[in-house]
Amino acid sequence: MTATAGQPQVRADAKSLDEVEDALEQLKDEDVERLVAKAGAYAVGTGVEPMDLVNEAVTAALDGSRSWPRDITLEVFLVMSMKSIAWNFRRKARRTTAVDMSTDGHSFQEAQQRFAFDVEAQTLSAIRCKALVKKVHDLFGDDEQALAVVMGRFDGLSIQEICDVWNFDRKSYETVSKRVQRKLGEAVRAGAIQ
Prior knowledge:
This protein is mainly α. It has helices at 17-25, 29-43, 50-62, 74-94, 108-140, 144-154, 159-166, 170-190. The longest helix has 33 residues, at 108-140.
């Protein structure tokens, strides 16, 4: 890796930031639409919009915090980045933080109010999560394989784990995954899932 003071580190086998900028400028509308559709599958359960995932991946590429390896296409690199970013969002959402009930500098009532606020926020998050799961079930209720892939991703299972549980070979998984991406992309564009 190479770096200078104040500059992000760039892998030796990665494209330069100038190459990243040039490639991003070459993206066509249909390329962006395809990325947003793919982001729709990864955005499930993150609390962020698919376009936000695309923007996060592009920003990470432009600021050098994610390096684009020379041996993969821009689309594959951005999809891998979106998958990783979505996983991080889900991981953060699953964390529960301890509520400080100490009264140092605060009244007991203030501590109780902080606790009540945190519980309310967690309850709202759980309600949103249940609503999202219901929407996904409604969307894929007639396609058990697609529902298995979506819920497996939502639960953080790896591709291999999903294949093992549902007895998919790699080709079957990829076929179902494309079906999921297409249907989720349509649902996101139609506003049925956010």
